[in-house]
Automatic annotation (TrEMBL):
GO terms for molecular function: GTP binding; GTPase activity. This is Uncharacterized protein. It comes from Euplotes crassus. It holds the Pfam family Ras. It is found in: Endomembrane system. It comes from the Eukaryota. NCBIfam families: small_GTP (TIGR00231). Signal peptide: none annotated.
Amino acid sequence: YNYLFKIVIIGDSNVGKSCLLIRFADDCFTENYITTIGVDFRFRTLNIGEKNVKLQIWDTAGQERYRTITNAYYRGADAIVLVADSTDMKSFEDIPDWLTEVSKYVPEDTYKILLINKSDVSDEEKVITEEHMKKFQEELGIIAIETSAKTGHNVDEAFINITKHLLEKKTEEGGTDPGAATGSMLSMESLKEKYENTC
């Protein structure tokens, strides 16, 4: 691969963070995914404009009791994926708190994107509207996209958006090195077997 980027997924519990990761990395979905304890991760390589880009994607537990564990994994992140549940307004209202938390560990210009998951549910069940998303985008300058881990709607598109942005940033910086995250990746190879499972 030409580049390696570290992406961290954060947000409240039960918004579908793990399901989004598995949909993107393994292209499958399970209704009965066990709540993440601590962290999990997957790899996927994308080909963007003749560049092979390896994404190392970390899924973090949403519960408060795991916060001290998960905080350590924010460091070195090239992008942050914030996730809210379209049927749960609190998960959306908590996003600023997640931004405050992550800002302690990553530079201010770290790329961030908000995914409003569970777009497959009926309009009656949705409480986060397009207006909410538009206002969020205007106030914070963070793109908000509706996704569905269940159907795959916009999941690849969201991660391709992130990857293209990171490539542009790397090109502007004039870098061709796979990045500092490579070192951390090597130390995690031993964890790979432990954490990886297939659907």
